[in-house]
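Chain A, query sequence.
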Amino acid sequence: MSISQFLLIHGAWHGAWCWHKAIPELEKRGHRAKAIDLPGQGQDQTPLGQVTLDTMVDRTVAALGGLEFRNRVEVSPYHYGAVFERPR
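Chain A, predicted structure.
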């Protein structure tokens, strides 16, 4: 089995907390998983007036930069988290 790294991105009105059941299941199977809060959501304190598509993309790119790329990284957006999954 190939071990993957997962970057989990929540949907609208959620936060990294919504992946609390998925992360242990992935880890039990030998994968690595990290969930992030998008700007202005979850535990993130970015004022909503400063949240843009670009700030969401920047947060995701920064999170990817913190992962080790020994294997591929699966970016797993859910619902609203997929809105900004676009080429830059």
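The chain has a mean pLDDT of 83. Residues 39 and 58 are 10 Å apart (CA to CA).
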